[in-house]
Fold each of these.
Amino acid sequence: MKIKITILLLLIITIATAFIYEQPPHKLTYLKLIIPKGWPKPSSDIFASNPLTEEGFQLGRKLFYDGRLSKDGNFPCASCHQQFAAFTSYAHDFSHGFNNTLTTRNAPGLFNLAWMKEMHWDGGINHLEVQPLSPLTSDNEMAETIPDILKKLNEDTTYVRLFKAAFKDGIINSQHLLKALAQFTGSIQSYNSKYDKVKRGQDTFTISEKLGYQVFLANCNSCHKEPLFTDNSFRNNGLIIDERLQDKGRMAITGNPADLFKFKVPSLRNCTVTLPYMHDGRMYSISKVIEHYRTGIDTTKTTLDPLLKKRLTISKQEKADLYSFLLTLKDDELLHNPRYQEPGYVRKLSIDNH
Amino acid sequence: MFVSNQEVNKIYEIKLYPMRLISIFCLSFFLISQLFFIGASAQLNSQPNTIIKITFLHTINNQPLVLDSTAYTNCWNETFTLSRLSYYVSNICLQTTDKKVIKEKNSYHLINDEDSASRSFSFNIPPSQYNSLSFLIGVDSLKNVSGAQTGALDPLNGMFWTWNSGYIMFKMEGNSPQSSIVNNKIEYHIGGFSGVNNSLRNIQLNLGDNGVSLIKGSITEIIIRADLDKIWNAQHDLKITTTAVCTTMGALAAGIADNYSKAFEIIKIIQE
């Protein structure tokens, strides 16, 4: 009798403990990507198989700023993608990579990536999650291997904890590494520039900005389409080919001769802080870019975009107004958003002791 | 913020860990006692699985492939050794004699010659009479555009192009004195999943006129030979002298895929 009661008691305790302590609860704070009013819906949901969470975002953010993702520790993602420059390499035609190397293309800005179907100037990357594989492993960028990165992360108790928080099974593998990075970069959004505020009726253009907007709509909007300020297409914009780089552009990806010298149309959002311009960063000012479309287009190439066969004809005044308008695309809420900053980074006020 | 989280972590490790041990102990006690009390009825509930096992064998010159040592000769009288052979087998389907198609779930396998365990895999299947087996050499287009994957599709397996997203469907590397490339290398990395660049090939294999009967609880092993001699001339001519390397998608890659798609044949079906 006593044995039976003991067994019964033990069973009850067992069941109770199994229910209470079987698994520590795994809580995720789900986030939603903001689709600003009047914007098109992204062509596909980049978070469809990678639910966006605060935990995943924070892990991705830490990884983005961590030099240990590169071979010698000197090249975090953020070394080429600086927040104050809308996540481009500020004032660098090419970015610096491992062992005194240079990249062969200008680092593109990282924002509104959820609306971007293909990444890189040639569109070679077909999903945001797999993009980091390219800079992480390229000899002239971060030059690291995936197994080495995973080893470094596994040896760091902070990462062990952060991966556990962000993913149910908590495993540190390439899939979770890439998904976390995508949660961070895919969440970087730009929709609060003066232009956006004017569109929402929260601000007004100056006369010059308004005139510049008219110039923009008449001459630029067909490729740099509002509200993303790119149509994400690939076009040959008539640059003279650099003989050393011999960059074939989109054709290197598709193998299609019709894609020769075509590059992705970049967004004009934040363009006043993303200098230099073009896929090889050859132009250091917006004035030079406008001048290219006025007088510099190489019309001899067969793949030249049909829209550029007629050169841009705008007056000096219109050029100045256009520049005023482009300044309204600068989004300070992107450039200084603390959520996108390096974790633990505190902006210190400089105090004058005199 | 991270400092505070570390503190949380400490608390977590100190407090919850023994709790978990207790729970595991209690749970195992519970399970053992379950076995004692209702052990007999458990046996009645067990369902015998019907298992199909698929094994790949690689041959060159009608001999089993030996990496890194044996020198082989192809139909063009070119000599070569191989150092690596790996390829994807995916979307395995079996068809019953009454035209029902059974698909393996999450069917992605990376066959790597130097890892004998990778050359063989098995899965459960409903008992029936089957007369054909089909699979893709390569990874279907959907998985090529669906972001970061894991397991057989993990990019760290070295079968993923990082500069032009997509899986390398088939990889064969080695050396040949006829190669004009540095270190006399031969390197065929075949990829591309759409349009004219599509290197995916569907392999259809017949399981005999009357099919194979898979009875409940049985294990059936299908041994497939990949005859690598086919890569040099099954449909298009491939010569080391002129083409020792193919590492981009395109017509050449698609042609090599045509050739190796002719290499697969069933050589044996073993039933227990």
Amino acid sequence: MSAKLPYQLYSISDQAITLDFGGPISEETNDRVHRLVASLQQNMLPGITDIIPAYNSVTVVYDYMTVYQQQLKNKNSLPVYTLVEQWIENNVNLQSIENEHDKKEIIIPVCYDKSVGIDIEFVAKSHALSIEQVIELHTAKIYRVFMNGFLPGFAYMGIVDPAIQTPRHDIPRPLVTAGSVGIAGVQTGIYPCNSPGGWQIIGKTPLPLIDENESLLLTPGSLVKFNAISLLSFEKLIK
Amino acid sequence: MSIQIIKSGILDSIQGLPIIGKQHEGFSPGGSMDLIAHRIANALVGNKKEAAVLEMHVPAAILLFTKETLFAFSGAATTATLDNETVYCNQPIIVNAGSTLSFNNPANGARIYVAVQGGFILKKDRIQKNDVLATGHSFDYHFEGIGQLHALSLGWTANTQEFYRSNNIRCIQGPNFNVLDTNEIDQFQNKRFEIDVQSNRMGFRLISTPIQHAVPTALLSTAVTKGTLQLTPSGQIIVLMADHQTTGGYPRIGTVISADIASLAQMHIGSSFGITWVSIEEAESLLLQQESNLQQLENACKFRLQEYFSEK
């Protein structure tokens, strides 16, 4: 177990508190995030309505009135946010739970053809690589899902090989189609639905990321490997 | 038993309470923009607060009731014409089958909420929450049988004024408040913010003299909430509203307190307001006070309705 990381605790609203470990995107910090989430889930407090992991932070959303009722019962006159803060701090100091996030590896077929990977040529050129090399580098790694967010089912994955890391577009496109696979700096991700977006689009998957019951294919801790497919098999799969 | 949209308004949709607990999967909580009006409209007709309501931006839709029911509208301070009669907001109203309801321009407020007794019936294959409604759409409501019609209005009005403020919105400071220049911090309470036309249920863009700030080192995406004041690189604020994205990477300079979200939701495009910073302790006590007043009003509605229908 690594040494204790410093952290900051702050309210982001009168019904949400964030614990922020700080620092850049790293797997070690993200492990701490998911251990804290697991610990909080095991020691739930009435009134907590959501626990949201991000790269290096955990946000706890609570219903003020429910926590307030608890305070009344316990004859505690401290502000409600201090009780939630205390609960989070108790859990961050616990951290006895082993890293339990699931390690299932998910293979995602991706067509890297220029017709659907509309920025792959740009990405290749800006690194003086061939398109084949970009595909090779993007499919070589096993990525971890750091967090969900942005859109239902969108998964922030990383860490992209430095040889193909490319900043997002300055001006987002008004429409990126569902299934588009993109790169933004160290991150890679898939658009689960049509949306405006600024990531460099290098391919497209025929796989849906969210089913009709709203359950997600990719959740924090999932391991992801991209598998290159031809335009022909992409078109077959999409039908 | 349904309401039919005879002529659609600018943005009409069926809304419920926010869906909580799915933000970690990327689902925005959604729900009615003005949750106070949502609850009052429901209380006026004897519904639970969870019942779905019709949310309409102004100009609002023209509605046809196919069966008699008890309904109410709340939110924007407005009147409506029911066939030939004028009816008022924040009153329970009995409507006959075949009646048409059209809304007048509100004196104050931007969103109108309609509740019917028993609530709307949502069907997966027909109208779902957050669907934008168009002319010709109709959606069913429960009908509990009012029987002999006695009155158009039940004769009493809920006073909702105390729940709304228009000139300034109170906020707590956010984790990146320190990116503001010291001059800006000193002058902040004198600034005015105008709601831009590019505002919607996801967020309100605010126009002000650009806010001078330090460019922060790249921030990693973290969770954001309803009311978050995001500072864009151009020095303008975007306030996140009901359908907000779940995570964001802009500096968060503050958050609208829960007690003032409804007031902000009722401000229309082009109106302006100031921002007052309050402590989180103040935000908590304002929310507690508001919630207790709202519960009192809900109980009063319940009592008056019971009284009315037992006398009948």
Amino acid sequence: MATNNAPHGNINIAPRAIATIAYQAAVESYGVVGLASKNVFDGLSNFIVKDPTHGIEVHYESESILIDLYVVVEYGTNIKTVADSVASTVRFHVEKALGLPIKEVNVHVQGLRVSTTE
Amino acid sequence: MDTETPPARLRITVLQQYPVNGKAVGKLAEAAYAWLEANKQTVNALNVFPVPDGDTGTNMVLTMKSAVEEMRKVPETKAGEMLAALAQGALMGARGNSGVILSQLWRGFARSVDGKESLNSQDMAQAFVAARDTAYKGVVRPVEGTILTVAKDMAAAAEGAANEGTDPIRLLRRVWQAAKESVQRTPELLPILKQAGVVDSGGKGLSLLMEGMLRWVEGHQLHTAETIAQPIAAMNLEAATESVEEGQDYEVVVDFRPHQELDLPSFYSDLEKMGTSIQVGEGQDIYRMHIHVPADKRNDPLDYIETIGTWTNVKMENLISQMEEIKSKTRGQPLKLAAVKPGEIAVVAVASGSGIARHFGELGAAAVVEGGQTMNPSTADLLAAFENLPTDKIIILPNNKNILMAANSAAELTAKKAIVIPSTSIPEGFAAMLRHNPKGELDAVVKEMKDSIAEVQTGEITTATRDVEIDAVKVKVGQTIGLHNDELVIAAEDVEKACLKLLKQMKAEDYEAITLFYGEDLHSEQATAIADSIRKAYPKKEVDVHEGGQPFYQFILSVE
């Protein structure tokens, strides 16, 4: 999916590839301290295999791309602002790499991490 | 602030001998905020992308504003309490990435000195270390060459100073020195900065906060930007005209050659006695100064320049008559909004520019909230716009990606049934507006409006604020650039060429209608002339041109 009509044929980009870009962008985004699974079952399987797309879901809806991020945010930060910024960081990096527009980036804050003072 | 504080010399002595108490913390924080505010544009200009976008300087200032306002509510007795309030305010008001990091820095700093009445050097060093640690905890993979790196270097300097037993003021100076040097090194650590030829904006903001504190300690003014002459080409004299203060009626610009090397700080302070909006530019062997002065002092700057050098060129303008002209242009055309009856659907649109706001009103918007690319309205602004409307069915058109979030929160917070149409540009907003039916069924109307967004292509023409190369488009500062659906696609020498190039890029020949909204920087004659050459290039298309009045963008255009 997500094809570009190239002169010699089609280019297919798998959702996983996009998810990998999104993952890299998300972990560099300030306030995001981890990516979380959408449900417990996924969490267990990820416990065993370290997945570079963990916590990221990419869907295609006809010609458009939608990304869902499941994140853990640092306790004590402004959650709305952090979510806003991770969404725009992911959108920027994915759009830059693909050259295709992303329709939606949805951020799901799955939990907060409380860091100890010391 | 300077008038009510003790003379600088005394202030330094007092601060050096005693720990920093609540009162001093208050003054330091106020000074940091004031100085960042004064230098906001310097920080904004460091944005890596060539469009005014999510400005770091503005975000950090707004974060500090909220922080300082919270701090003012607590009594000035305990340093720890003051800082806790400051951190709380920063958290609540955090805007943008840099704002969140700044709030984390304050949070770590404040927690480290919790309960302390005053701070000695050891306390301060520990607090800077805690600030660093807290900030670094907030991200999985810290990016170096950013504000985080600057905070790290500041903490190291603070620790070093405290170990040598320096007083709190010398410690602050060492920290500031470290911050300044660290900012200069950021392009070495982060390639995108080097590519754009800038230092990190968040780091610069942090360093300015420290500088503000020291300026207060040393008794320097905090309200006029850094006394560094900028290149003449970079002087932003148009922006200066926007902020005409009462009594400062004349704009005087003088090009001159000083007899001796110009001592900038004393030059600035001499100018400050005469007027406001001071800017100094430096070119080859020549300086340019800009100032706003009262009518009776309009000759003073020239007399003054003659005492220190030879002037080569003078430009003087009466700002009052200019302002009258601007006012008369916008006057007499009030914003007409649709009256909503109970049970009908009301549309709230976000718009920047008087013409665009009026257009939304004409198309049937019940409320228009001022806002756009650089001025994002808050959730509260949006709520205020529709909470009092006599209906509970609300549709919000954010018309900008940066406002989507605030619009969504407003929709969640209200008891009314509010739905956000995710329009990310003004043309998308208009397209949606055309499908609006106040008497329709909410879900059906929302669907119609959402669908219409996809049918319109958005183009924007603006001026690049710096040199940059993105996706093979090379842009030089001052060039006109074109964005297609928010992406930089073309650069050109003038607005007309940019419009034609952009329309070609947008495949305008495949569509039926081209609509142009010209911004506040263009005259209607200029806009009409450009529209005419577009008509020549696309003789079969319907070309419409309207006054938009939007800032930054010479044109917002749509093809559909």
Amino acid sequence: MQLVCLGLNHETAPVEVRERFALSDSALDRETKSLVSYEHIEEGVVLSTCNRTEYYAVLNGGRGVEQLESWICEQRGYQGSREGIFYSYVARAAAEHLCRVASGMNSMVLGETEIFGQVKQAYKRALEGGATKTILNQLFQRAFGVGKKVRTQTSIQEGATSVAGASVELAEKVFGNLEGSSVLVIGAGEMSRQTAQALQSRGAASVIVTNRSYDKAVELAAEIGGRAVHFEGWEEELAQLDVVIAATGAPHFVVKAHHIEAVRRKRKFRPLIMVDIAVPRDIDPEVGQIEEVYLYDIDTLQERADEARKRRHEQLKLCEEIIREEINKARLPAVND
Amino acid sequence: MGMGIGWVVIATALAAAGCVFGVLVARAEKQGGNAFFWMLGAFGAQLMALGWRGELRGQCPLGDLGEVCLFLAWSLTLFYLVTGSTYRLSLLGVFTAPVVVILQGVSLLPGAFKAGVDKAVSVDPWREAHAALSVLSYGALGLAAVAGVMFFILDYRLKSHKIGGGLMQGMPSVSRLVTSMARIAVLGWVILTMGIGAGLLMVSGVFNLHLMVATITWVLYAVVLGVYHVRGLPGRQLAIGLTSLFVFSLLIFAKL
């Protein structure tokens, strides 16, 4: 019996190839079923996310990885060059790779957590479809344990690695909890959308969107479940806000100190976090001099995101050690034999 | 003085250990909280030390500098143990411990604990209540001041964008710190009110200088807290108010 992992991801294949091999939810079960019904394949799990498609299989005889690769290309109708597109791992290397994937060490955003759920889902569907037996069952269970251990015993998932995430982190440093907080988004571009959604995902209750072009504000507000206000009216909203995100294309400051000074009493001097992700800046730096205002610009946010990425990379060695140790302890069939 | 003074030494050592370990844990970017158990140990030792002095005096042990400092350190520790966990301010212990060490350090100075004190023949319960409640209130007000110092550090680092580091990891949020600071101060102010009330009922019935200063302090705290609750105050101004009032009152009482 030979344990094999064959796949392609964002590091090996361009998007036009990845999309060829990507499997929709409905196609995943069919693919797993076809995989295990193919000759010499005893067990199989197919994992398909936006950045990777991987086949974990237990082979019994045949031409091994080469045969599996041909079969996959045939299934997907792929006739292009295969050189450097696929990677493959056998036995222990395959087990270690799965652990890396489940731990987020192999993801585009190092340490991201979503992949863990995706691997679990892929395994669950294979299990329910009767495509797994002893070897893959033990391997995947072990990989989930290792994934949890890596995340709890290292800092691989700590810190925000995006500008939007860094904004949320800072807002939480000021408010602790964003449950029930009110957010004003000035500008209706992509960065505004991402940051507003990141804040919403942490509990922000109301999001108000304003933009010079009111239609765009309405569009973004509808998309994120917020409320649009005319650009001339955003100042009236200031009194009830906790977070202001500014990301317009204006060549001058949109928010000035006098805007905040005017509502300080009304706000009872509550803390206010202001995130300026525009270049040129939208918020006058003088606003940051107001006692209860915490102002951050794109450079600070980018710096924090870079630092978090660097810290995550520094954890890789420790993660590898945990994986090696856990695989050694596991005594998995077709891995440690 | 036998084991009596030994309890003060133990309490001081435990608080110092709480401070050192708390800082080490914070610097290692792990969640704080270790100071809690050291402070709990210190609290036990403080109780033993207060028991020793209370036994000697036959009344509330607030008769000399050593006892006042020890009682204040005990009160500060007590409020930290209660509020630190209630408001999940794990790093508060790291900031409280040095104050406790300093107060107990003063009480350990030669002569701070008077030797050969006379056992009280009769006790005025209102006088006892006044002294105990007043010092107890200063424990809470001292803790509010400690939270104020934490706020200065957090505010400075957030404002100057120095956000990384272990200390920042364990710090509570600005909102929580401001709320906790105000609540602890209100608690201290309520106890001080009771202390002053008890003072007015003392047998001697004299509105002495001591009681007058306590009343002025009470009024000043009432103004700061009143403005905060009614009109609102930026966190920094609240922190300045609470820390400066505490230091001011401590210095005044030390002079009296």
